[in-house]
């Protein structure tokens, strides 16, 4: 009987808000960036470098395995060579080398895309199932605990899924950079990359953003954050207008 007195549409709206609040954003990225700004204010270069690495790892998370020799001397016999090889293989499964940190501006613009723009895109186009699918696929690929248990072929499949999942929203979000930044510079980069299926989504996002921000390969991170905020504001305005005119139900 309670359902007769409660608007079902209101319940759906409330459920959507809860899901969006849980999925959109990343608390670690926000915390790292606030700490970076604090370190910058007190000229703590060591902390800034460390936090830049953390933000780069968060945005471009990859584990690079490397083999390490257990001994500098050559094995004396075949049995020792086999034992050393097995020990080296076992060590290679556990030792990882951190990738070279990306520029902070690229890490921030990519994190903004992954955790804000892309999920909103999937919610607008596919509704609640779309954003839940996106968040699930992203979690499966980025979860370090799962990566340690999953075989390499499954991880490669997840990586391919995520790249295809990023492909379309990256093209749409990059269009926004052109309108809120330098249009002609952004358009030139966009036309070079948009139709190329082999171009990774992060390259599409970062290069168009750099061009739209002014064409500098190492753009200031604060300017890139402002660019991302203007783009998100444009995105929200466009969605609101489409909703008002009935193009989005």
Profile the largest sheet: 2 strands, antiparallel
Note poorly predicted spans. 1-5, 62-76, 80-98
Structural class based on helices, strands and sheet pairing = mainly alpha
Overall geometry: globular
Helical content, roughly? over 70%
Tell me the domain tally: 2
| Adjacency order of strands in the biggest sheet | 1-2
E-strand count: 2
Strand content: under 5%
C-alpha-based Rg, rounded: 22 Å
Q: Estimate the mean pLDDT confidence.
A: 78
Number of helices: 11
Termini separation comes to: 28 Å
Order of helices and strands: HHHHEHEHHHHHH
Note down, in words, how this protein is organized.
This protein has two domains: 63-98, no CATH class; 103-244, no CATH class. The protein contains eleven helices and two strands, in the order ααααβαβαααααα. It starts with a helix and ends in a 5-residue tail after the last helix. The chain has 249 residues and is mainly α. The chain is globular.
């Amino acid at each position: 009987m309670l359902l007769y007195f409660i608007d079902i549409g209101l319940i759906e709206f409330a459920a959507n808000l809860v899901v969006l609040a849980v999925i959109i954003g990343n608390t670690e990225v926000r915390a790292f960036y606030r700490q970076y700004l604090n370190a910058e204010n007190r000229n703590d270069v060591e902390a800034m470098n460390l936090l830049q690495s953390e933000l780069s790892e968060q945005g471009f998370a990859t584990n690079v395995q490397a083999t390490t020799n257990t001994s500098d001397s050559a094995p004396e016999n075949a049995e020792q060579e086999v034992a050393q090889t097995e020990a080296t293989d076992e060590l290679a499964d556990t030792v990882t080398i951190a990738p070279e940190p990306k520029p902070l501006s690229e890490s921030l613009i990519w994190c903004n895309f992954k955790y804000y723009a892309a999920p909103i895109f999937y919610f607008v186009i596919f509704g609640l199932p779309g954003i839940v699918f996106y968040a699930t696929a992203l979690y499966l690929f980025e979860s370090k605990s799962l990566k340690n248990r999953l075989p390499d072929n499954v991880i490669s499949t997840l990586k391919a899924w995520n790249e295809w999942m990023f492909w379309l929203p990256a093209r749409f979000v990059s269009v926004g950079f052109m309108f809120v930044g330098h249009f002609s510079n952004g358009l030139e980069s966009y036309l070079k990359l948009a139709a190329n299926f082999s171009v990774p989504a992060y390259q599409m996002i970062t290069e168009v953003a750099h061009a739209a921000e002014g064409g500098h390969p190492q753009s200031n991170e604060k300017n890139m954050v402002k660019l991302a905020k203007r783009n998100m504001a444009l995105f929200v305005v466009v969605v609101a207008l489409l909703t008002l005119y009935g193009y989005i139900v």
